[in-house]
Amino acid sequence: MSLQTAGIHHITAFAGNPQANVDFYAGVLGLRMVKKTINFDAPEVYHLYFGNEQGSPGTIITFFPSPGSPKGRIGGGQVGVTSYVVPKGALPFWENRLASFGIETTRTTRFSEEYLQFKDNEGLGLEIVEREKGAPSSWSFDGITAGQAIKGFGGAILFSTNYAQTMHALEHILGFAKAAENGEYARFQSTGDIGNVVDVPLANMNWGVGGAGTVHHIAWRAQDFAQHEEWRNTVESSGYHPTPVIDRQYFNAIYFREAGGILFEIATDPPGFANDEPAESLGQKLMLPNWFEPHRDQIEANLYPIEVRVVAPSKQ
Question: Which residues form a coiled coil (predicted)?
Answer without folding.
Answer: none
